Amino acid sequence: MLKKTNSIGFLILFISILFLSQPLSAAQDSSTLAGVTTGKRKIFNDNLQQAKKNAVSDALRIAVQNAFAKIVSRQVLASNLDFFYDQVLTHTSDYIITYRVLGGIENKGHYLVGVESKVDIHKLETTLIDARILNANKDKPVILFFIVEKTPSDLLPKYWWGKNPIPYEPLAEAIIIDKMIQDRFIVTGSDRVRPDPSFYDIIFKSIYDVNAAKNLGKEMNADMIVFGKAISEEAINRMGEEKTFNGQVNLDGYNVETGEKVFTSQVKAVAKSEIESEGNIQALIKAANLSAQDLSEQLDTYWTRYLRKEHSFDVTIKGENFLPRFIALKQQLNQIPEIENMQPKELGSNYAVMQIFYKGQSSQFANALMLKTFDSFGLEFSDISDTFVTIKFIEKNAGTIVE
314 pairs with which residues across the strands? Predict the structure, then answer.
């Protein structure tokens, strides 16, 4: 059994581990997440090695947990905890590229370790895509809804964001969201626990503050926000002895990336009833169903056109054994039908810069290229933006676990 450290040595080592144990931060590229985490396990039957092994496992699980939280929104994380614990954490080693133990100490019957590790973000994303937790091809947008609802029986408008939201069961929004999900759109922020704007330091100046809604949409990784209102009221006209009621849903769709308003949907419906409360609800339900149909069609049309819009961006390619790998990569690029044209801008002995004309965004280009495989090397993507992408050739045998 190892001797216990003296009090001074213990304090120095403990402070060192605490200093190293900062939250994980993104590495230079988007394919991995590197950082330091800590683990702690109780020592049973003087078995120090087993406690150390378990503590290291705990530290690596925290690293994967941090990576999971980085690539999904809080709402997605909260609604998929069972999948995370059952399917991801039980296979922690599958997502760890490398790790090394920075230090360990025995403390009050426990063993503490500091572990530096690198998590494979792409592999974790693939797992979430296969489970349909993430949208792989982006053929449908992720949508965040902001719909104010009000009937004459409501003293105040009902909403979930901004100042002093009133808890309520949405009616029109629920109908519209159900239709969106049926049509394979992805809806975020509609869980029982709504996103909290203050968590992201976002302040709504009013319930109709579209700019604040766009900012919250970005934080929720939404592609689109849909903002508007659903109201009903008694109409002047009558049908015999029955009263008539007007329902109306007005919605605007905004592209979160560009900030533009890209479509407007305005729908009206009429219901008749002898009971006022029942008539208002029926009118709102009718209007919501018509709005859902119109919204689905407009979203589909816009998003398809948006995805197929040609974009131009620069792709920097670099790495060891450059020329033969560059030739192999170009052969794969020629097989991607969405690439309209490729123009060389710079060519060196170990790098090249290509201008790519692509029917889609740079992120879609990267996703398409990630599906390609090569015999002796892999691709590491970084710096993916609207105007450029960086690709580095990496060795296939890189990433041995060391301790």
Answer: 355, 388
How far apart (Å, rounded) are the C-alpha atoms in residues 225 and 144? 5
Quote the pLDDT of residue 7.
47
pTM reported for the whole predicted model? 0.53
Domain 7-130 listed as CATH 3.30.1660.40: yes
CA 296 to chain CA centroid, Å, is 22
Report yes or no: 266 and 290 within 8 Å, Cβ to Cβ: no
**To the nearest 5 percent, what fractions of the chain are helix, strand and coil?**
35, 35, 30
- 191-194: list long-range contacts, CB under 8 Å, 24+ apart: 191/75, 191/78, 191/79, 193/75, 193/78, 194/160, 194/161
Q: Nearest to residue 145, comparing CAs of 70, 232, 71, 220?
A: 220
For residue 252, the Cα-to-chain-centroid distance in whole angstroms is: 23
CA-based radius of gyration for the chain: 27
306-343 burial, b if ≥16 CB within 10 A, otherwise e? Answer: bbeeebebbbbbebeebeebbebbeeebeebeebeeee
Could you tell me the two tokens for 170?
């949405």
The proportion of the chain whose per-residue pLDDT surpasses 70, expressed as a percent, equals: 85
Domain 142-308 classified CATH 3.40.50.10610? yes
Average confidence score pLDDT of the chain: 83
Task: Summarize pLDDT for 347-356 with one digit per residue, the tens.
Answer: 888 999 999 9
User: Which tokens belong to 2?
Assistant: 């190892």
Measured distance CA(27)–CA(41) in Å, rounded: 28
Q: Which of 205, 206, 302 is nearest to 252 (CA)?
A: 302
CA atoms of 381 and 97, how far apart (whole Å): 16
Residue 78, φ and ψ in degrees, nearest 5: -65, -35
- Which has the closest alpha carbon to 168: 188, 154, 152? 154
Residue count (the chain): 403
Contact 93, 60 (CB under 8 A): yes
How far apart are alpha carbons 158 and 166 in whole angstroms? 6
User: Which is it for strands 339-347 and 142-150: parallel, antiparallel or unpaired?
Assistant: unpaired
Cβ within 8 Å of residue 192, ≥6 positions away = none
Distance in angstroms (rounded) separating the CA atoms of residues 218 and 225 = 9
